[in-house]
Amino acid sequence: PDAWYGSDTQGNKGQGEPGAGGGAWGYRTEELYREFLKKRRALWEYNMGVTLEDFKDTFEAEIQRVTIDFDRLLDPQVDITRRYMPQGSRIDARRYLAYLNGKGDGRVFDRTTVNVDEDRLKGVEIIFAVNKGRRIFNFEYSIATLVAIMSCSIILQGHELPFGVCGYSDLTNMKTAIDLSWFKKLEEDFDNAREEELFYGLARDWHGDTVPEFQLLDDMAESFSPDARTRILVIVSDFRGSRAKVTFEKDLNNEETYRLKETVERLSNRGVILLGVGVGARAISDYVFTESLQVGGENFANLPALMAGRVTELIHKHHNAAVL
Question: What is the DSSP letter of 295?
Answer without folding.
Answer: E
